[in-house]
């Protein structure tokens, strides 16, 4: 696992200029291992800090890369680089920024969401089907907390996530998508910055989050199938009806047979539409949705772990804890506190 991290001694409450900070060489060393032709320009001496805080880029698996920034900009700077083909999903939790991929500019951060109030929980997705230039400018005093996950074509194929919809989206160079994040993933993204250490436990949390984010992204792209020209209008309508039922929450307490009866589909037809539309089996989708409901309940201190286990459909807390940790990378007790 390749991991490049540079941090200054800086708390979220005290981003003081007296901190040594991250200098020109620190940023170059972090970027050079992960992108091509990286060029950094800063107005002041290379000995002056550029960032105050934490920056890390990590190859979690071959083809699965996570980049995290939690810092204050100490001086104006800009950079350019070249990126290899991949899908990129970026989440800006604090601050605002503009990222430029070739001729495409993406404004990100709270306040930039397509709908008012959405910016903080919107992820920006872009497809790079060929090597492409990437640039960014930063202003002194800006605060940035963000993360970007990159998924290579090989990684998607190895994981069996290269559905027809994903391949079509990935093949459209510079195609973008605004994704309204599930609440559980949005909360996890912010909490991930408490796990930036290099120890094995923190690495496991980061990888668990990355896999959850990747799975959610693929599901989102697959669910857009009805917005893309697809063979068979009836098939698209059935898939859309399934999505509408699932998103309404009515299916959360229904059995597979009851869902099939509601939609007028056999079990085999129902599973086929689930895989085509959601990118996963219906059982897996419902299990993930129930776990996300349990996550929200625990995060808001609304119920005990035993109650959350029942909400998620688990009769034993131990089985619930195992599934919860596999899905989110943390134990229920870390949210509930007891």
From TrEMBL:
<feature type="compositionally biased region" description="Polar residues">
    <location>
        <begin position="1"/>
        <end position="16"/>
    </location>
</feature>
<protein>
    <submittedName>
        <fullName>AraC family transcriptional regulator</fullName>
    </submittedName>
</protein>
<dbReference type="GO" id="GO:0043565">
    <property type="term" value="F:sequence-specific DNA binding"/>
</dbReference>
<dbReference type="InterPro" id="IPR009057">
    <property type="entry name" value="Homeodomain-like_sf"/>
</dbReference>
<feature type="domain" description="HTH araC/xylS-type">
    <location>
        <begin position="240"/>
        <end position="338"/>
    </location>
</feature>
<dbReference type="InterPro" id="IPR018060">
    <property type="entry name" value="HTH_AraC"/>
</dbReference>
<dbReference type="InterPro" id="IPR053142">
    <property type="entry name" value="PchR_regulatory_protein"/>
</dbReference>
<dbReference type="GO" id="GO:0003700">
    <property type="term" value="F:DNA-binding transcription factor activity"/>
</dbReference>
<keyword id="KW-0805">Transcription regulation</keyword>
<dbReference type="Pfam" id="PF12833">
    <property type="entry name" value="HTH_18"/>
</dbReference>
<keyword id="KW-0804">Transcription</keyword>
<feature type="region of interest" description="Disordered">
    <location>
        <begin position="1"/>
        <end position="21"/>
    </location>
</feature>
